[in-house]
Amino acid sequence: MREYPVKWERGLEAYYPINDERNIALFTKCQTLANERGGIIFGGRLGQYKYYDMDKVIKFVIDTATREMCDGNYQKAY
Fold it and tell me: Which of 7, 51, 65, 73 has the least C-beta neighbours within 10 A?
């Protein structure tokens, strides 16, 4: 089975974001605010506005957790 991007409409299941002008601008704004604040990590399909196979998502999570927790940058979120 393959997934293809389509415009979301009520009643459809949203699989991943469509990289159109509006969504790219929104992602860029969110990423800028997160960088200014610090301590925020976006991950996965919706967090990075990209299509990923699950093996790549899992690798991203492991790599990010290792970097953030083992390099002395770990800060509790609560």
Answer: 7
Listed in sequence order, the DSSP H helices in 1-78 are: 21-37, 44-48, 54-70
**Whole domain around residue 31: which residue ranges?**
21-70
Q: Considering the domain boundaries, does residue 60 fall inside one?
A: yes
Give domain status of residue 78, yes or no.
no
Angle, alpha carbons 47-48-54 (nearest 5°): 85
Instruction: Supply the pLDDT for residue 16.
Output: 65
Give dist(CA 48, CA 41) in Å, integer.
Answer: 9
Backbone angles phi, psi at 4, to 5 degrees: -130, 140
Q: Which amino acid is at 4?
A: Y
Rounded to whole angstroms, how far apart are CA atoms 39 and 11?
Answer: 35
Tally of structural domains, the chain: 1
